[in-house]
Structures are given as structure tokens and as C-alpha cells.
Amino acid sequence: MKKNLLLFMTVFIVTISSNANDKNRGFLISKEALNDKIKGAWAAQTIGVTFGVPVEFDYNSTLIQDYQSLVWNDSSLLVEFRERPGTYDDIYMDLSFMKVIEEHGVDAPAQLFAESFAQADYKLWFANQTARYNILNGLTPPESGHWLNNPCADDIDFQIEADFAGLMNPGMVNSAIGICDKVGHIMNYGDGYYGGVFVASMYSLALISNDPDDIEDIVKKAIAVIPAESKFHQCISDVIKWHDKNPDDWKSTWAKTSLKWSQDIGSPLGVFQPFNIDAKINSAWVVIGLLYGDGDFTRTFEIATRCGDDADCNPATAGGILAAITGFEKIPDFWKQGLDKVEDLSFMGTDISLNKAYDMSFRHALDMIKNNGGEIKNDQINIAVQEPEKVPLEIAFEGHYPKAMIFPQQTENEISFEFEGIGFAVAAPPDGKKFGRLNHVFETEMYIDGKLVEKAKLPTEINYRRFTPFYRYQLEPGKHMVLIKVLNPVEGASIELKHAIIYGDKPFKVNL
Fold it and tell me: What is the predicted pLDDT for the residue at 510?
């Protein structure tokens, strides 16, 4: 196996370096061509998100059938920008990180990247909102993204906002991963972190390819940086294997992937539910879109969307990677219709538009090329291509197995429940909706088996909410009593909860 992997890596490097100076293992490209690729990637992300958002999480753990119409026209982008600006969390999170680099350089500490989105005036969910709450309440990265402090650590969040790291590091995968390590651990860990590393690596490799036929090689090269022991690596490897065996039937590969990999154990809104925001399954839908899209933008957008689940983020990622290969000019006019109407509009919570993002991302790429041994002479760029290195193994929720969903008892002053196991996570509605409209900061104390284990503030304001209000892992196996005291109840607002996921220390065995 190691010999085969080494042979593949060698062949792939030769392929992507075909226009290169062999002595420096470089890749030659003009400024105009690189700029067009980067512009295309940002445009295609924005197009993909807009195309898929009408069916986002409407088809959970099921594919979108062929008879379901997916609409695209010259007003799709403008309507979304004006009426639902929160759609573009895929983009505005990237832009916050890029602004930090613009103002403080790529070596800025993780805390500055963390504060850039924690203090921003835009909507967040799942691992991102959990990290925002953690940061605003004194927890610093990487602890803010660790699964013991973030029940959504395996979720898709960093996967949808790692684009910037790959796009500013063409052919320099290790440099992209270095940025991922710093930024991705602010909000994610384990498979959630790997999703961002995988995506950034694909972007980095796509920028030094000019042929959509290289897509499978790019996917294989990118997944090789993820430890083979991880479920993320195994899931994507299965998709590649099933595509190789059946390259003409994406639905067959979707079905096999869903059957084997659709279970979510971390994010409490997805456990025991068809809802799945887990990074690896949504990355699988990205890869299915890329592999079965065959370099065609319409097929790529359609398939990545029709895989369901996070059906706006996935076509955005797949389309962005394809456009990083082909460039902006080769995106069909059908998909670029209406783009000129929004390119100068700032994204929610930022002062950055698409036109500004194109320019900023290109400048950052030129800086990274020079900083990593490349050369820029007049209009010609020689990129010092890096041999990708594997990242360390991380496993979130290790030894924790969902065993039950229960419903806490709740009064104005107390929340309580009993369980047998080693951990729990209490879910709230994802949009932070509260009974009443009064902005209030609840002060709570959580007791486990009579011992005070946490004092927590729960703001009702959406940008400051604690996405998962209460959770605890790695408890001693056995029966436990949880009591949460609400110290300052108020008329006009209340703590709204959905359910509690209970974890045991052994997997459930099906009696079949």
C-alpha cells in the first residue's frame, strides 16, 4: 500500500508540474491566468451557495429527485443578497479571516482570527456560533473548537470557510494547512477540522491544474493529507472507490455512502435524526459532485446539490474547486447571469464585496508565492510546489456513543433530568428562537450529582447565544442527576430547549 501511494504521488506531481521548471519543481503560470482562476473560484462559490440554498436541509439523508426543479435565473443572486444576506456564511467568514491577514499579516495570532468573526455583525450557526460564544466568554483557541468545549466540533463549519487558505496558496498545500491549523481549530476539531484541510488542499492543487480531467487526482492527493485512521479519510476513500467501480451512476455511490457514513454522533441536533451537518458526509457530497460532474459546471452544481443535506454549501465548494481549475472566463454565461449586479455589494457584516475579494485573494496569493520560495518576474509566476505532508490524527467524541434522546423537565426556575451514561448535550432550536422578544441574559448554574460544575450566561440575542446551552462529556459511567438553576428568570423571555442526547461508553448492538 505504501509503495502504491508513493508511486501515485510521484505520478501526480509530474502531471501537475508539466509546465514547470523541473529543477525547482515549480509551476509556471501568468499573473492573468492565476487571477482568473482565483476570481472564478470566488464567483463559483457564490453562485453555488445561491443555487442550492432554496433546498438547504429540506432533503435530509435523502437525495433530491430528478423531478424536483432547481431554479437559476438572472435575479437569483440579487434577490438572495438583498433579502437573505445570512445565506453567505460560506463567504463572509472567509472574508473576515482575509481581512485579518490584510491588516496584520498571515502570521497574525489565532486570537485575532477568532475575534474577527466573534465580534462581527453577521449570523452564525453550529460550530461557528459555539466558538463565537466561547471566545466572547473567555475561552481561547484551540480550546474554543475542541470537542470537550464544542459539541459541534465535527460539523461542516470550517469546511465551508477554508477556501481562502487554499486560494492564497496555489500549489503550496503545506502552507495552506499551516493556516488551517491556526484558524480551523478555533471552531472545529477532528473530522470537522479535516473537512477544512481537505477543501483547502483541493483548492491549492486545483490552482496548479488546467485540466478538469485532473479532478480525481486532485481529490486523491488532497485526501492523502488526512490520516487514514480517521473516519473522514475512510469515508472519502469509499466515495473514490465506488466512483471507480461505477463511474456513470452517482446515485449508486450516494446510496452506498449514505448507508455506511450518514450517522452523526456529535452535533446534538443531528443525533437520532435524519438531519446531518457532519463534515465527512457533506464532503462526500462535494466529492460526488466533482467526480460525477466530469468537469461540467451544470452537472457539478446539480449533483452536489441533489445529494441533499447542506445543499447550498456543497455545490459552492464543488463549483469553487472546479472554477479554480478552469478560471472565471470558462464558467458558462448561464451561471454568471446576474453576477455583475452583486459584485460590488458588500457581504453581510463586512465591507468587502466580491470585486474586493477577487483582488485581495490574488494579492495574498502573490505574497505567499514569494514568501515560499517562488518567483514573480513581470507577468510570469514560478510557484515552488510543495510536497504535501500528512496532518496529525484527531478523534472527536472518542469513546462516546449516543444511546438515548430524553426531554428535560423545565420550569421557570429549573431544568432537570436523570440519565445513565458518560455524557450529555442539550439541544436548542438552531436559530436561537426564544419565547417572547425580550433581550435578556440568563444566568445559570449547572449541578451534576449535586456538585456545581458550571456557571453559564445564556443571552437570548441571536449573535451572542450559546448554540448548545448545556453539555458535559467524560463523566464516570453510571447514573447521574443534572439540575440547572435559572438565577434570573424574567417575563417576556425563556430558555427554549429541544431535547438532550445521552452518551454511553459502549456502542449499541443490533439484535439481528
Answer: 82
